[in-house]
Structures are given as structure tokens and as C-alpha cells.
């Protein structure tokens, strides 16, 4: 007769207690890390819900020991502020076209690289791969002069074109690899049915490329939405996106937390919503984008 | 037939190639060219702009800071990512943990910058970092009592060394010593201070005295006299010093009375500087010396999640049997981690490190937002200097272009590595 515990591999009681305790310590450690990690964001959020007088007088953590009135007044004022609301519109006007253009132009080129024959195809593709890591900083001076010459410096169009160009290497790289995995027979069959390249692209490749296109779209969307540097230089001073509008407020930091905190939160709402809704696609985009 | 196919291929490629050519390739060439010309863009400058990168103090700070960034930010973020990935691997709520750590990646560097500007705020009633620093400090050091207190010329005290005050005459046993001070706002007096009392005669040859605020509100008090409404300086430290050595100390009570032993006879009284120190105001996180480490901290906060997610994916791909075999052979968890997990993860760790390094080279927003104007020079990095050189009031596009070329040169090895990797894959 064996007792159930005797079935387990030999393990001294001490080792088991140590393991249990170690697990407990590890759990506490992880909980502390998680709290530590989320605290700065919570701090900003709670600050955004306090009136200017409360912010000036005490820290946001005081609401736990001496609850003061939380209020949406800051947000109300922010939405009445035409600079901020206008900048949110600008952000959308920049982000949506930049994302759509990168997806469309990128998938056209990726399809050509994956399934069309033309001279020097592999060399052109290597060139695109080489451009993956080019820092945007290299283009700031030349492109501002170029845009100045053709008259689109400090316009939304300029910002969109810049973001599209710098999104393309990654888009082409990611999509070509994905398109190349489409079974050849599928394409051959469609060709035999008399489909031209354009039909193949719209009816076969684009639908099959869905997951990769979703990853790319989310990645590019977040990238452009969150950008400050490109917009700081290329956006018109009358239509800055939210990042630039808030950046101009930072100089007064300390006196205008009641504007900056809710403003930063409003700018984070869409990225966070996208992030939580499309975690899987975001993660696979991030993985594909490693060494970019 | 092949002719039309070529036309179609060209049509598919054209938009991408035009944009890449005009906005990525051409700028590279132009930046290289422009970097050899002077500020005005008309005179050939040779390598003067590149020399300036390593001689101009402000730019040199940027180069040095970038080096610090590239060394520390990726390693710390990767190390934390590795720890988090390994620890959460077999925990049920690991996903929730990962979500919290990964979340900052989705927000803008601007928002992260504002978040950390608030964390690092100097005022302990706004910045949580200083709130913690101050409360920890005050737990271990009793807060200084009387920052602005000082004697009047008619008082029997004078300025000593390092912010202390000393008695003009040595003290004598059996004599009541007077320690009057002024300059403490009524609101800053300890709440439980009581009206001061003239010190009673000490027993056994000790020395007694009174430390009090020699000031009567509304007038009527006389200097050097313990008037009825004047309060004792509760908690004031008094030292007896002879030949530079402290031989006895005492602390004034609520009524200002203190007692020194008889051995202090003939010594000089000293009110040490710690009585008068300004209250501790926390750490100057965004001052010249801590601003770069501080901003690196905010970067790690943003990117440790990236490292964690990639490493976790790598961990999931490790052969379970190998790890189990090692455990069966009696290896403990640490040995398994050191000898098997880390070496097998090496390729993933390399990818994470290189990606973060490239990313760190270009860091701009965080420094631009978090470093206050006063310490932006100390926090300077290449991308920030490029922006300042190129778009400020007295822009020098030659210098700006030279910085751009330097940034590009630093990523060329990675560029070549990527190209070789793709060529190998194509040959397979």
C-alpha cells in the first residue's frame, strides 16, 4: 500500500517549503513590479481628474488618504479649447492617409517583388531592406528644403508623404515575405482563368494577405499617431497634431498640469484602444519590426 | 507580352520607388554632400563640421550622452525583459502582468515624457519620486527645526563655522545660560512649544539654560529677557565644545530648558548647523547630474515590455525536453537558467539588443520633453543636437548634416547585416 504522497518523486519537506516560499516571494515581487510600472500612468490619470488648485497644493496620491473631489472639469475645458480639438483633427488627418498610403503602395510593391519578374528584382529588394534602418533624422534637412521648393513645407500633405516614405521599407519587407508564402498553384490557377495582374492582386493576394496587412496597418497607425518629431518640423503651425500642440505647453510645466495631464490622456486614448483591441496583431508587427 | 508585364511591374513599383528615392535615398546623398559645406552652404568646409562634433562642448556632451544611452538603456531594458519573461512564464496571471509592462509601448514618447516629467517634478507635493525621497529621508532624519533662526547682535551668541552659532563667552557651572534666537515665523514653531521658562539652578554643578524665541508678538518684549509670551525652542540641539571637541550635548525641552553635565564647565556652547538647515527638499532628478539617468529610466519603462515580449516568444520556442532533462539530472533552476536558457536565447537577446540600440541612437522626444530648459544642455543627445543645429534661430545646416551622417554611419553595420541575412535566405 502506498500513500499518494509517496508516488511523488522524493523531495524533502524543506525543499518543498522553500519552493512554495520562493513562489510566494516571486509573486509578491511581480505584483510590486506591476504596481511600480503602472503607477506613473495612474499618477497622470488621477492628476487629470483634479482641479488646478488641488494639483498645486498636494500630490495625486493624497486622494487615497484625503479624498478630494475628482472632476471632469479639466477635460471639459480641454474640449472647449479649439487649439486642442483642432490638433486632434489634424492628428487624424495625418494618421489615416499615412496608414492607408503605406498599406496600398507597400502592398503593390511587395506583390511585384514577390510574384513578378523584372530585371534586377533581387537587387531592388536588397536596396529596400537596406533602407529599413535609415534614421528619419537623415532626411529632416534635405526634405524640408525639398518641400520648401515644391511648396508643401509646413502642410499636412508634406507630413503624410514623409511618414509614407519612411513607412515603406518595413511595409514592403513585411508584406513581401508574407505574400511569398501564398501557394503558387493558387496564383497559377487564377492566371489560367484569365485573371490579369491587377485582378490577381485585388482578388487573391490582398484578401490572403489580411493578417500581415492588419499588423502593418496597426503598426504604422500607432507610429504616425505617436510621432512628434516629423510633425514638429513638417506640419503647418496652424494645424499641428496633438503631440506638437501638447509639446508647446510643456515649457510651462508645473503651472499647467491641468491642461497637460488630460491632454496627454486624450492623446493616449486611441493608441491604447487600438493596442488592447489588436494586441495579437500589434505583437506580431513588433516582432517583425525587430531590427528595424 | 513580356513588354506589357514589365510595364505592369513598373506601375506596381513606381509609387514606392518614387517616394523612397525622393524622400529617403536622395536625402542621404544630400546630407553627405551638405555636411562638407559651411553654415551658409556656399563655402566648402572640408571635414570641419565633423571636427566640430568632437570639439564643440555642447555637441561633445551629446556624443558622450549618446554613448551612455547606447550602453545602458538597451542592456537594462533587455535584462529586465529577460527577468520578467522568465518569471511570468508559468504564472497564471502572467498575461496580465505582461500587458501592464508592455502597455507603455503603445503610447507616444510625448505622453511618456509628460508622465515622467510629473514623476520627477522637483516639488515633493507633485513629483512622486521626490515625495518618496523626502518621506524616506524624514523617516531616518528628524526634520531640521529652525531654518532661518539667528541671534541678534545684542544676544550672547555669534556666528560659528559652517552655519552654526556659538556662545561669545564660555559657560560656567551653576550659571543659567541664555540662548535667545529670533527669526522663526510663529507658524513654523513646533506645535507643542510652551512658553519659555528661566532655567532653574542645576543640581550637582551641572549647567542649565534656556533656548527661546526672543520675540514677543505685538511688541513689548525685551531682548535677552524671557518674557511671558515667548516660546521655548523645542528640540534645539546644544553642544558643549572644548578645544574643538564636543564633550556634551543636550536638547531643549518644550519650555526651552536644557541641562548639560558639570564636565561642560568652561566649554563653549555651540548650536550645530543641523538646527538651521533648510528642510530636505528631495533629489534634483532633472538637474545636471541625474537628468540623463532619469530619462534613461523612462525609456526603460517604455521598452522593457518590448524586450519581454520578444524574449517570451523565444522562451516558448525552447525545447521543453532539454530543460526537463537538465532538471532531472539535478540541475537547480538557477543552473538551468544560466547554462541552458540564456545560451539558447542568445540569438533572440542579440536581436532585442541591436533593435534597442538602433532605437536609442535616435532618441529625441523623451529628452526634448523631460529635460527642463535649464538642463537640456546636460541631457543633450545627437538627435536633439541635430534638431537644434538645423531648426534653431542660428541654424548651421552643415553641422546638422554632419550629425545626420554620423547617425547613419552608426547604423550601417546593421544595414549590412540585414542585407546579408536576406541574401542568405534567398539562396536557400
From TrEMBL, chain A:
Pfam families membership: BPD_transp_1
Mode of membrane association: Multi-pass membrane protein
Localization, UniProt: Cell membrane
Keywords from the named record: Cell membrane, Membrane, Transmembrane, Transmembrane helix, Transport
Cellular-component GO terms for this entry: plasma membrane
Single Gene Ontology BP annotation: transmembrane transport
Residue span, ABC transmembrane type-1 domain: 88-278
Spans traversing the lipid bilayer: 21-39, 88-111, 123-143, 155-179, 200-225, 259-278
PANTHER family hit by this protein: ABC TRANSPORTER PERMEASE PROTEIN MG189-RELATED-RELATED, OSMOPROTECTIVE COMPOUNDS UPTAKE PERMEASE PROTEIN GGTD
Similarity comment text for this entry: Belongs to the binding-protein-dependent transport system permease family.
Protein name as catalogued: Sugar ABC transporter permease
Lineage start: Bacteria, Bacillati, Actinomycetota, Actinomycetes, Kitasatosporales
Automatic annotation (TrEMBL), chain B:
Principal location listed in the UniProt entry: membrane
PROSITE patterns per the UniProt record, alphabetical: ABC_TM1 (PS50928)
Source taxon at top rank: Bacteria
Gene Ontology biological process terms, A to Z: transmembrane transport
Subcellular location: Cell membrane
Residue ranges of the TM segments: 7-28, 67-87, 99-120, 299-319, 340-361, 397-419
Cellular component GO terms, alphabetical: plasma membrane
Keywords: Cell membrane, Membrane, Transmembrane, Transmembrane helix, Transport
Membrane topology: Multi-pass membrane protein
A Pfam family recorded for this sequence: BPD_transp_1
Domain ABC transmembrane type-1: 63-418
Signal sequence segment: none
Family in the record: Belongs to the binding-protein-dependent transport system permease family.
Name this polypeptide is given: ABC transporter permease
Annotated organism of origin: Streptomyces microflavus
Phylogenetic classification of the source organism: Bacteria, Bacillati, Actinomycetota, Actinomycetes, Kitasatosporales
Amino acid at each position: 500500500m502506498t500513500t499518494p504522497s509517496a508516488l511523488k518523486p522524493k523531495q524533502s519537506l524543506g525543499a518543498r517549503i522553500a519552493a512554495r516560499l520562493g513562489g510566494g516571494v516571486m509573486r509578491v515581487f511581480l505584483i510590486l513590479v506591476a504596481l511600480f510600472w503602472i503607477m506613473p500612468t495612474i499618477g497622470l490619470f488621477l492628476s487629470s481628474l483634479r482641479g488646478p488648485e488641488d494639483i498645486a497644493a498636494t500630490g495625486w496620491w493624497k486622494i487615497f488618504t484625503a479624498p478630494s473631489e475628482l472632476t471632469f472639469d479639466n477635460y471639459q475645458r480641454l474640449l472647449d479649447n479649439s487649439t486642442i480639438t483642432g490638433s486632434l483633427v489634424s492628428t487624424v488627418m495625418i494618421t489615416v492617409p499615412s496608414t492607408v498610403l503605406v498599406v496600398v503602395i507597400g502592398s503593390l510593391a511587395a506583390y511585384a517583388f514577390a510574384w513578378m519578374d523584372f530585371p534586377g528584382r533581387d537587387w531592388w529588394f536588397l536596396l529596400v531592406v537596406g533602407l529599413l534602418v535609415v534614421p528619419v533624422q537623415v532626411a529632416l534637412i534635405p526634405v524640408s528644403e525639398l518641400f520648401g521648393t515644391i511648396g508643401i513645407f509646413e502642410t499636412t500633405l508634406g507630413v503624410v508623404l514623409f511618414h509614407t516614405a519612411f513607412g515603406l521599407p518595413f511595409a514592403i519587407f513585411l508584406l513581401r515575405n508574407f505574400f511569398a508564402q501564398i501557394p503558387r498553384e493558387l496564383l497559377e490557377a487564377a492566371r489560367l482563368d484569365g485573371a490579369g495582374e491587377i485582378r490577381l492582386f485585388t482578388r487573391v493576394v490582398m484578401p490572403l494577405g489580411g493578417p500581415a496587412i492588419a499588423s502593418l496597418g496597426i503598426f504604422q497607425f500607432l507610429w504616425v499617431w505617436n510621432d512628434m518629431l516629423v510633425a514638429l518640423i513638417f506640419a503647418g503651425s496652424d494645424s499641428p497634431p496633438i503631440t506638437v500642440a501638447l509639446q508647446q505647453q510643456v515649457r510651462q510645466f508645473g503651472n499647467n498640469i491641468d491642461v497637460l495631464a488630460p491632454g496627454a490622456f486624450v492623446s493616449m486614448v486611441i493608441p491604447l484602444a487600438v493596442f488592447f483591441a489588436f494586441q495579437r496583431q500589434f505583437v506580431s508587427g513588433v516582432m517583425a519590426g525587430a531590427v528595424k | 507580352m513580356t513588354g506589357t508585364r514589365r510595364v505592369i511591374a513598373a506601375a506596381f513599383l513606381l509609387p514606392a520607388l518614387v517616394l523612397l528615392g525622393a524622400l529617403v535615398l536622395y536625402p542621404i546623398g544630400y546630407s553627405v554632400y551638405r555636411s562638407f559645406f559651411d553654415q551658409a552652404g556656399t563655402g566648402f568646409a572640408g571635414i570641419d563640421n565633423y571636427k566640430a562634433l568632437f570639439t564643440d562642448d555642447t555637441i561633445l556632451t551629446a556624443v558622450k550622452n549618446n554613448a551612455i544611452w547606447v550602453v545602458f538603456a538597451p542592456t537594462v531594458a533587455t535584462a529586465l525583459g529577460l527577468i520578467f519573461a522568465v518569471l511570468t512564464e508559468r504564472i497564471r496571471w502572467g498575461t496580465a502582468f505582461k500587458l501592464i509592462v508592455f502597455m507603455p509601448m503603445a503610447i507616444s514618447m510625448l505622453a511618456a515624457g509628460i508622465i515622467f516629467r510629473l514623476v520627477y517634478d522637483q516639488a515633493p507635493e507633485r513629483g512622486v519620486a521626490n515625495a518618496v525621497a523626502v518621506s524616506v529621508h524624514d523617516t531616518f532624519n528628524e526634520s531640521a527645526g529652525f531654518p532661518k533662526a539667528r541671534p541678534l547682535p545684542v544676544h550672547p551668541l555669534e556666528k560659528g563655522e559652517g552655519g552654526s552659532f556659538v556662545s561669545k563667552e564660555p559657560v560656567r557651572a551653576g550659571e543659567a545660560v541664555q540662548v535667545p534666537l529670533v527669526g522663526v515665523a510663529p507658524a513654523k514653531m513646533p506645535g507643542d512649544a510652551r512658553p519659555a521658562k528661566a532655567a532653574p539652578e542645576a543640581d550637582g554643578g551641572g549647567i542649565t539654560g534656556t533656548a527661546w524665541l526672543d520675540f514677543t508678538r505685538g511688541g513689548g518684549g525685551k531682548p535677552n529677557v524671557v518674557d511671558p509670551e515667548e516660546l521655548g525652542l523645542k528640540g534645539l540641539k546644544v553642544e558643549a565644545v572644548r578645544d574643538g571637541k564636543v564633550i556634551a550635548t543636550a536638547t531643549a525641552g518644550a519650555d526651552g530648558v536644557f541641562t548639560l553635565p558639570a564636565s561642560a564647565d568652561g566649554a563653549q556652547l555651540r548650536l550645530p548647523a543641523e538646527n538651521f538647515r533648510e528642510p530636505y527638499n528631495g533629489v534634483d532628478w532633472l538637474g545636471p547630474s541625474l537628468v540623463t539617468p532619469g530619462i534613461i529610466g523612462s525609456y526603460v519603462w517604455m521598452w522593457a515590455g518590448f524586450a519581454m515580449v520578444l524574449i517570451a516568444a523565444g522562451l516558448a520556442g525552447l525545447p521543453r525536453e532539454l530543460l526537463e532533462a537538465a532538471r532531472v539530472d539535478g540541475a537547480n533552476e538557477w543552473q538551468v537558467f544560466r547554462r541552458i536558457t540564456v545560451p539558447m536565447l542568445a540569438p533572440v537577446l542579440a536581436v532585442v539588443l541591436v533593435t534597442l540600440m538602433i532605437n536609442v541612437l535616435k532618441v529625441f522626444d523623451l529628452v526634448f520633453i523631460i529635460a527642463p530648459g535649464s538642463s537640456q544642455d546636460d541631457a543633450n543627445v545627437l538627435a536633439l543636437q541635430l534638431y537644434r543645429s538645423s531648426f534653431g534661430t542660428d541654424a548651421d545646416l552643415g553641422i546638422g548634416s554632419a550629425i545626420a551622417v554620423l547617425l547613419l554611419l552608426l547604423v550601417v553595420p546593421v544595414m549590412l547585416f540585414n542585407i546579408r541575412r536576406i541574401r542568405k535566405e534567398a539562396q536557400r
